[in-house]
Design goal:
By secondary structure, the protein is of the alpha+beta class. It contains eight helices and 13 strands. The structure holds ligand DP6.
């Protein structure tokens, strides 16, 4: 199967066992940054291990431990795995040199394959239960992976503003999405392609005793309410304000953690300044968000694509490592590929 990455608008930052979020989050599901995963499975022989993992056809030791931990974690929810030997093959579609290591696309595609094994033997499993379980299992690999299952947007975490939400899995959010947000674009400027200094897991941990923890929880809830309203009425101005505040808050929380951690680069801030000037001067409703690193995700409606890409090529590409940027847009989530 094939599964995309996603970009959070309200950030999941801070968690407690078993991989449950301290606040609700919402994201756009992406389209071009994807992981393709296949699993060949057979009855497990006594002396055999549980799995082999191949990345692009080759063994990759660094991923093996993570997958072992994941399979142990999901074993009580997928007991059938005990009797199977899995040959897992994975491959990303994003450029090797981009520094994007998407745990979201990797774990959502793996979860989709695993729950598909169950579905093929369980006729009573409805589509809805299937998708909820894929998101639930993906979450146990990486929290944000729970939000890559469907699109164009997914919401994860209990809250009082949208019914049916859960801390255990993400649900699709598309009914109230105003047409201004359809086909939204996400262009990723690669400011630094090195592997992240701080893993997301460590970043989440830093939130546990953070002095601003409670304020952050309240802010995320308030921002979710605003963004859901902006989604339903097409309020781009409110959307831009909240999305940028969320990005800055994520990094402000890390800078004010113990010990302080800086995950952005000066080029990140320079790009943000230029983007804001462009927005004001040209009246283009473009904004930025950040994940737990220096790369800048630029978000904008499809009709401004030519103008924004021209601006990126003329003014921003100079700040990108190897002049690299990736053009992506919202998409519909995980899908099964033809096994032939
Ligand atoms: C900043 O999902 O990578 O991208 O659950 O430990 O695997 P783990 O963390 P991860 O955290 C993502 C953090 C973020 C914000 C977000 O995607 O909501």
């Amino acid at each position: 199967c094939e599964s995309p990455s996603n970009i959070a608008l309200i950030k999941y930052w801070g968690k407690y066992e078993p991989q449950l979020p301290i606040n609700p989050s919402i994201s756009f599901t992406l389209s071009n940054c994807r992981t393709k995963t296949s699993i060949d499975y057979s009855p497990r022989l006594k002396a055999q291990g549980k799995f082999v993992f191949l990345y692009d056809g080759k063994t990759k030791k660094s991923f093996e431990n993570k997958i072992k931990e994941f399979l142990d974690r999901i074993s009580s929810f997928c007991p059938y795995l005990e009797n199977l030997f899995l040959k897992i093959n994975s491959k990303n579609t994003f450029p090797h040199s981009s520094g994007i290591a998407s745990s979201a696309s990797a774990f959502s595609s793996l979860a989709f394959c695993i729950v598909s094994i169950e579905k093929s033997y369980n006729e009573r499993m409805t589509e809805q239960i299937f998708f909820n379980k894929v998101s639930f299992i993906a979450r146990l690999g990486s929290g944000s992976a729970s939000r890559s299952i469907s699109g164009p947007s997914m919401i994860w975490g209990e809250n009082e503003f949208h019914s049916g939400c859960s801390n255990f899995f993400a649900i699709n959010y598309n009914k109230q999405l105003h047409k201004s947000f359809k086909n939204y674009q996400n262009t990723i400027l690669i400011i630094d392609n090195k592997i992240k200094k701080l893993s997301s897991s460590l970043g989440h941990k830093k939130m546990t005793n953070h002095p601003f923890l409670n304020d952050r929880k309240n802010q995320a809830k308030k921002n979710l309410k605003i963004i859901l309203n902006a989604f339903s009425i097409g309020d781009l101005e409110a959307f831009i304000k909240v999305v940028e505040q969320e990005a800055m808050t994520l990094h402000a929380l890390m800078m004010s953690s113990d010990p302080p951690t800086v995950l952005i680069k000066s080029k990140t801030l320079q790009v943000i300044e230029l983007l804001k000037k462009f927005r004001e001067k040209e009246k283009v409703p473009v904004c930025f968000t950040l994940d737990a690193g220096p790369n800048v995700h630029i978000l904008y409606p499809e009709k401004y694509k030519l103008q924004v890409i021209k601006f990126i090529k003329e003014k921003l590409v100079y700040y990108c490592q190897n002049e690299l940027f990736i053009e992506d847009m919202v998409g519909l989530g995980t899908k099964l590929l033809d096994s032939n």
